[in-house]
Amino acid sequence: MTSYYAQLLVNGIIAGSIYAMFAVGLAMVYGVFKFINFSHGELITWGAYLTWMFSSSPFSLPVYISVVPALLITVGIGLAQDRFVYRPLRQSNPIAILIASIGLSYMLRNGIRLCWGSDLQTFDLPLSTGILLSGIYITKIQILMVLSALLFFSILYFLLTCTLLGKSLRAVSDNIELSAIMGINMTKVTWTIWVLASVFAGTGGILLALDTSLDPMMGMNSLIKAFAAVLLGGAGNVWGALIGGLFIGIAENISVAFISPDYKDFISYGLIFLLLLFKPRGFFGIAGGVR
Amino acid sequence: MDYFYHILIICLIYSIFAQSLNLELGFTGLYNFGHIAFFGIGAYTSALLSLNGVPIPLAVVGAITLAGIAGALLAIPTLRLSGDYFGIATLVFAEMIHLIFLNERDITRGPMGLPNIPRPDWIGSGISSLPLFLAVTFFAATITFILLRRITNSPYGRSLKVIREDEFVAQALGKNTSLIKTKAIVVGSVLAGLAGVIWAHYITYISPADFTLQETILVLLCVVLGGKGTHPGPVVGAFVIIFFAEFIRFIPIPSEYVRFVAPLQGMVYGFILVIMMLKRPQGLISESRKFATTNA
Q1: Which of A182, A278, B217, B236 is least enclosed, having the fewest CB within 10 Å?
Q2: How far apart, in whole angstroms, are the C-alpha atoms of residue A126 and residue B207?
Q3: In Å, how far is B277's CA from the nearest CA of chain A?
Q4: Per-residue pLDDT of chain A (291 residues; tens, 9 = 90+)
Q5: Distance from the A80 Cα atom to the nearest Cα atom in chain B, whole angstroms
Q6: A103 to chain B: which residues are within 8 Å by CB?
Q7: Domain A2-278 has CATH 1.10.760
Q8: Checking DSSP bridges between strand A136-139 and strand A130-133, what pairing results, if any?
């Protein structure tokens, strides 16, 4: 019986590391531009679908190579979102940006439907055999998921703490106007944020698709989990998003032992409500953050 | 002609729905992204009650009451939130309601939906009932329009606009902003429930797939395109959007391309939302700002 709970815990960590990768981009964008990017979920879906496209005919590249062009295009989509929609709207009222991001997300999602249809798709991989580690069953892809999350967050930590670019990123999310006055190159910082958000979302999407399957709604469904993670960690807080993502993944998977799996999603939904009610700044929120 | 009646009925149902959202989004500035939940609650409640033998007028009253109660219940925890956080909370609320429709199979029959929803005897069913149903829907839409016009032109309506422009100012002027916003959400939810009720008894079949984010986007588009914060705006928006959607059906499309139509339509809707926000955020009909400019 302990191995059953240990299995659920491991599943939770696997799911949580992916949620954390989705949440981090959302948190960064919120931290600097102060809006909730509803089209963030579509970066997840596009990353996954593009990899799938490059790995199947007519390209038929191996999956690990097709990740490269897929992520490049995903980053392109992320930057284009900013260039053509969010930058022109930066000075307008918040509701305009919010509605635009919902519209953008709907457009990109239907773009997926247009190109590849609405049906479930799977990567044409040989059946991944699970490894049994002291009673816990885990597949190679799931190990890859956790390792990639570790690697990506380590790189992010290095970037934010040990480089000048990271320093300016942190300064900008602290106070965007003051940073601009101090001569920080805003274009560079903006680009970095969108590139990071797109790469994290795209990679997370690819890993999720390798583990499960692809469908046009995968981004939207993950986005709500990412919202919950961001709220838990405190909006705009990158490390909060990591912990929030892990927490949600674990809570969701452990809950399967107690409630019907049909209502698994209720955990993150309910959590969003409770957090908004009692702790709207999250557990690691920046002091004075907007709620 | 029968088909034209059908389109008009759908337009009017959506115009009620869009007007109810406009009260919250346009007049009060509440970004409700889960309005479809109340439409769904109205539709499911009325359908379930009337399928279980409750007289239809009673079922309708029960349904819109429940939608209003649900609105109040949603308002209490979420109204302390500002702006985009309220948006997330409502979006999540709609997802929760959708999950309940989908998973409470003993009550809602889950994904199979509820067929054969009865209509009042005096309206009847089939093609011959269309003009009468149109009249009833038109009556409901007119009542909604007049009601919302009265509400928003009253002193209460002006406090809604003050809250939209600056909530702190409203508080400083001694307004109980939470109560005012709660009332707006309850009225919005009741009217959305009414739209859902008419929808359920018109289509006579509902399933959880009818109440998703897709419909939220559609009604949001109606409000934003027509002009949020205006009385005719959502009505115009609903007619434009529904006529556009129905018009597409008449374009002769080779059968191998038919599967591309729905996604393309979705892309166009999304694109219009983005372009509207970039180029004409006030919508086709813009709100008169004569009060806003005098004290600026």
Answers
A1: A278
A2: 38
A3: 6
A4: 677 888 888 888 888 899 988 988 888 888 888 888 888 989 999 999 998 888 887 777 787 888 888 899 999 999 998 888 888 888 877 778 888 888 899 899 999 988 888 888 887 776 666 777 777 778 888 888 888 888 988 888 888 888 888 888 888 877 778 888 888 888 888 888 899 899 999 999 998 888 888 888 888 888 888 888 887 777 667 788 888 888 888 888 888 778 777 777 787 788 777 777 776 666 655 443 333
A5: 13
A6: 217, 269-274, 276-277
A7: no
A8: antiparallel
